[in-house]
């Protein structure tokens, strides 16, 4: 058995990414060798040279580790993977191991269980909630990674999960985009593509507590805006001085003794072996005191929102505005040849003077949105969300929770809408993302029938529809495209309108362009066109056809800017 363990151990490679974090990397390596069966010769550090950050001391402390200075990340990465053993564990320099684990055991489990994609060291029974255990071994927890549970539905990560080389190599070589740094490498598998790209359905970890945490106290890249706790003086240059000039290190024994219930932790876990100015718990207490004071100041607002939520749940807003349900809206569109446009939280934000991810605040856009919202026009219907004012039971749980929080938006609509107008339901174009229970099949049949055989002009942001597998507009007789900027489209409004006006009026104009779509649909309708603000419909149809899970993470991902 020992001989077999030795053979497997020699097949394991650990590839660690580091940029400017000398002190933190020391903690990674020290804790790795303290808590696991890993040996220095198994480890390769790919480090990005950063001005005034010194790695020489690290190299002396861990002389058997292989040190590779990065010159081109993707090239270096592929070389390391090709030269690795049969199993690979990636690592990042902000990880600290906190409990005992056996890489040989993890590799053996992967060898025996072909359904398991990776064996995680950062998950355990302290990271909850957990999915159902599928393992027959007492010491191993196994689950289907395509689940609703946060942390457990993230199969590809670079902190401390052991994978088969064959899987890593295939995924890496298949990646079409440039892998610029570890963040790009981790992000290459998304909720949209990972089910197709990962051929194994399960993940595994130790049955006990997790064996690692990620101490997020600084950020060393600007391509991905990951959050971090800057309570202490934890910029990379301050930490480099602590390590190289003051011979200070992280106290991994004290860190390991602390409890954690999440993977990513803050500055309270950043414990030095030697006391140093700027790293005391007093700074943490000061921060907590400020947070408490801030919450006390906001208490009246929180109370008001709570009371408003209760009023909403009791139906107090149901008679404030006249809004058709989704089904009633559908019947209207089938019966009448109308144009329509739709308002949501993004448009409300613009009207209130706030920017949104894909459209900066523009006072002209805000004024036009406000005016259109209140103006009744023959042959044009304006949508606002039915569930904003009506607490309905068949909403997706995430959407239902979101609806209860819309105090500001609800009050804004009640103040600024025309109470004599009959509005349609905004959610007509995003039914799958809105409802938990609905006759989706019938709904999409009706919507597709409205498009079937029509000649359309599709105005949308660049790249927005490129990733769709199921194209709802494929039932149309023909499709002409007008491409617009995916970000800040209103800045090009005049040229967009001119381009749209060259369209034959017998065609249906379908617009996918955020707040700009409302103004464009209005102006086109006024000039004799039938225009539909389609919003998320094409993405929604694609998600339905793919039978994507209606989970919080999937819905949040769905609404992210394309």
How much of the sequence lies in strands comes to 15-25%
* Biggest β-sheet strands, sense, barrel: 8 strands, mixed
CATH-wise, what's the superfamily of the largest domain?
Answer: Spore Coat Polysaccharide Biosynthesis Protein SpsA, Chain A
Q: How many angstroms separate the termini?
A: 52 Å
Strand ordering within the main sheet: 3-2-1-4-8-6-9-7
Could you say which structural class the secondary elements and strand pairing correspond to? alpha/beta
Q: What's the overall geometry?
A: elongated
- Quickly give the CATH architecture of the largest domain: Alpha-Beta Complex
What percentage of residues falls in helices of 4 or more residues?
A: 25-40%
Q: Do you know the CATH topology of the largest domain? A: Spore Coat Polysaccharide Biosynthesis Protein SpsA, Chain A
Name of the CATH first level of the largest domain: Alpha Beta
| Count of structural domains | 2
């Amino acid at each position: 058995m020992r001989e077999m363990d030795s053979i497997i151990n020699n097949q394991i490679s650990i590839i660690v990414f580091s940029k400017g974090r000398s002190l933190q990397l020391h903690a990674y390596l020290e804790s790795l060798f303290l808590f696991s069966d890993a040996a220095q010769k198994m480890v390769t550090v790919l480090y990005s040279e950063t001005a005034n950050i010194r790695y020489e001391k690290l190299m002396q402390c861990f002389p058997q580790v292989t040190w590779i200075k990065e010159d081109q990340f993707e090239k270096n990465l592929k070389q390391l993977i090709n030269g690795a053993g049969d199993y690979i564990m990636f690592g990042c320099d902000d990880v600290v191991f906190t409990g005992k684990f056996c890489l040989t055991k993890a590799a053996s489990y992967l060898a025996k269980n072909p359904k398991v994609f990776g064996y995680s060291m950062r998950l355990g029974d302290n990271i909850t909630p957990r999915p159902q255990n599928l393992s027959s071994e007492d010491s191993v927890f196994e689950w289907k990674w395509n689940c609703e549970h946060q942390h457990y539905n993230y199969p590809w990560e670079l902190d401390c999960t052991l994978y088969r080389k064959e899987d890593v190599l295939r995924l890496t070589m298949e990646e079409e985009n440039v892998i610029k740094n570890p963040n790009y490498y981790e992000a290459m598998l998304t909720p949209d593509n990972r089910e197709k790209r990962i051929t194994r359905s399960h993940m595994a970890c130790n049955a006990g507590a997790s064996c690692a945490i990620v101490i997020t106290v600084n950020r060393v890249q600007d391509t991905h805006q990951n959050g971090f706790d800057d309570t202490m003086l934890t910029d990379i240059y301050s930490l480099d001085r602590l390590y190289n000039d003051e011979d200070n290190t992280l106290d991994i024994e004290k860190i390991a003794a602390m409890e954690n219930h999440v993977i990513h932790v803050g500055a309270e876990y950043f414990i030095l072996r030697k006391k140093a100015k700027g790293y005391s718990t007093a700074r943490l207490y000061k921060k907590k005191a400020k947070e408490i004071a801030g919450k006390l100041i906001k208490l009246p607002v929180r109370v008001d929102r709570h009371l408003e939520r209760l009023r909403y749940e009791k139906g107090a807003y149901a008679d404030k505005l006249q809004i058709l349900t989704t089904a009633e809206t559908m019947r209207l569109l089938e019966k009448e040849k109308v144009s329509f446009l739709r308002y949501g939280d993004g448009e409300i934000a613009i009207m209130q003077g706030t920017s949104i991810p894909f459209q900066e605040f523009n006072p002209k856009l805000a004024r036009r949105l406000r005016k259109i919202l209140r103006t009744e026009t023959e042959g044009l219907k304006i949508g606002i969300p039915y569930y904003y004012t009506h607490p309905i039971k068949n909403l997706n749980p995430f959407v239902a929770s979101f609806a209860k929080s819309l105090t500001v938006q609800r009050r804004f609509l009640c103040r600024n809408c025309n109470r004599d107008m009959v509005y349609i339901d905004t959610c007509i174009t995003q039914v799958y993302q809105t409802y938990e229970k609905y006759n989706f099949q019938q709904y999409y049949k009706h919507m597709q029938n409205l498009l079937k055989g029509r000649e359309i002009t599709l105005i949308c942001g660049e790249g927005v529809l490129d990733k769709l597998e199921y194209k709802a507009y494929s039932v149309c007789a023909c499709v002409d495209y007008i491409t617009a900027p995916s970000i800040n489209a209103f800045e090009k409004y005049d040229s967009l309108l001119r381009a749209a006006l060259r369209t034959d009026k017998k065609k249906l104009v379908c617009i996918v362009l955020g707040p700009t779509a409302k103004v464009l649909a209005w102006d086109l309708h006024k000039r004799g066109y039938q225009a539909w603000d389609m919003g998320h419909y094409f993405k929604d149809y694609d998600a339905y056809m793919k039978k994507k899970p209606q989970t919080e993470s999937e819905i949040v991902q769905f609404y992210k800017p394309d």
